[in-house]
Structure formats: structure tokens, C-alpha cells
Amino acid sequence: MTSALGSAPAGSGTASRPGRGDTRSPARPHRKRWGRTVRWSGWLWVLPALIMYGVFVLRPLVLTMQYSLYHWNGIGAARWAGLDNYLTVFTDRDLLKIISNAFILIIFFSFIPVLLGLLVASLVRRITTGPAGTMVRTVLFLPQVIPLVAAGIAWSWVLSTNGLVNQALRAVGLGGVTRAWLGEFDTALPAVGVIGTWVMLGLCTILLITGMSKIDPSLYEAARIDGAGPVREFFAVTLPSLRQEIGICLTVTIIAALASFDIVYISTSGGPGIQTTVPGLEIYRLAFSQRQVGLASALAVVLMALVLVCVLPIQRLTRGEK
Predict the structure, then answer these.
(1) Which domains are assigned to the chain?
(2) pLDDT tens per residue across span 82-92
(3) Helices and strands (H and E) in the chain: how many
(4) Nearest to 211 by CA among 245, 236, 180, 185
(5) Which parts of this chain are annotated as the region Disordered (predicted)?
(6) DSSP string of 113-130, one letter each residue
(7) For residues 281-292, average pLDDT
(8) What DSSP state is assigned to residue 187?
């Protein structure tokens, strides 16, 4: 009797039922196939963007690296150069001067706008609310809306010999200080830097104001209860909370300084001499005016490497939770 009860027919339903310890699910293979299908469909959605990125970003980058290894005028046959073009970039005094000009512009394009942006953003957050705050933000962001070519033309007029700056100096009795700010060796590069500061200040200020609006108000209340004034409150609460926003500002502005072209080309064309020439402008001249495509490509690759060297540490230091 016991053996008869313990053995079930081969075709009975009890034999096919999983035991209590059996965790197998007949629907799991279907779910795996469905998950794979969803993932592949996601790649199909982004495939057009990847193709465009590969054609218009990755392919030119690879070609630039290839051209940098040749002597080529852009028309005739190319001659193998190896690393000669890179050796020229790192040994030619004029090219080294041009690269150093870009690093000097970082001070005006990046550090000064970020410092002033912190100050302006703190003041705007405290004294402007409602429609007034919106209007102030719009005015501050206006330089980002104006095309850089138009900004370069306008500032060329302002800084010219009879421009607004010199007229203001003469009006207050400082006529001896007036000069062609964009035309003299000592003042041309700082004058271009001032234009960059004006352009980047609005962007940095808006980004920092946005970051300040996300700070928990209870942190400020706790600081006030502990007796912190506005300055201590800024360094103890505001500044540490804006680490990521400051990192974004530095990243964007440093790239703008190293890759600058529009403002310099319109305002000074790189003069006087090469005093305001930057790598972006020199790459254009080497490739299209002097027909030295290989040397221009090598300078472009070096510029890309310098951007990465400057930006990646900033991203690493400012990344993470607030």
C-alpha cells in the first residue's frame, strides 16, 4: 500500500509539480529574452545620434591625429613627418608664446568670472526677489545671448582710441592714461581678457545663483543661530554647497579660454605681433593661410591634450555628493 501511494503514474500531474525547494520559474527565460530585447531597442533609439557623433566628432579627431604625422599642404602629396610637427610645437618660441597667451586668458575667462560670480550671486540672492530678481538675472545673462562676433565689434569700439573708455578717462582728468587698449603690446592681451570676463561673468553668475537656490535654508538658520555673520555664513554654508557648480563654471570657462577664437579674431586679429594670438587662431592661420596642415593638426592635438589636463583634475576634485 505504501509503495503504491509513494509511486505516482508517469503521466500524472503530481509528478510535474515542483517541490517546495524548487525555485525554477518557467517564465524566467521569457523575461530574459524580453530584457535583452528592451536593451537592444534602446541602442536602436540612440544609434542615429551615435552615427552623427562618430561622423562629425570621432572621425575628424582621428583624421587630425593622422594629419599631424605628415607634412602636407592640403592639396599635394603628403610626406611622412613622424613626430617632427610635435617637436616644432614644443620648441618654436612663437608657438610656445601663443600657448602661454591662452593660459594667461584663463585668469580673465575663468578665475575672475567665477570669483566675481560668487560675489554677485550672493548679493543678488539677498537683495532681489520676485520680478526684480528675474530682471537682474536676464541682464546678467545677456552677454551669453549676444553673438561673440557682435561682442568683439562692440568692445573694439569701446576700447578704441576715441572709444567710451578713453572718453570717460578724459572726462575725469586722466587723459594721460588713455591709449589704444587693443593696439599696444602691454595692454592688448589684458584688454581681450576683459572682454572674456564680461562674456563669462553672466554665465557663471546664473549657474551659481541656481546652485544657491538649491541649498537647504535650514543650514543658513543653523549658522545664524550659531552667531555667524554674512561672511562666515558664505564660507561655512554657501561655498561648500556650490562645489559642483563651481566645477562646472571652471570647466566651461577654461575650455572657452583655451579654445578662444571669435573674440580675438574680431577685436585684434592676434596683434600687435603675436601678443594676443591664441592656439585656435594660429591653427586657422597655419592650415588655411600658410598651408601647413600637419603642423596645424599637431597644434590642435596638443591643445586638446592641454584642455584635458586642465579640466579632468577639476572634474575629479568637484565630483561627488554635496
Answers:
(1) 94-318 (1.10.3720.10)
(2) 999 999 999 99
(3) 18, 2
(4) 245
(5) 1-30
(6) HHHHHHHHHHHHHHH--H
(7) 94
(8) T
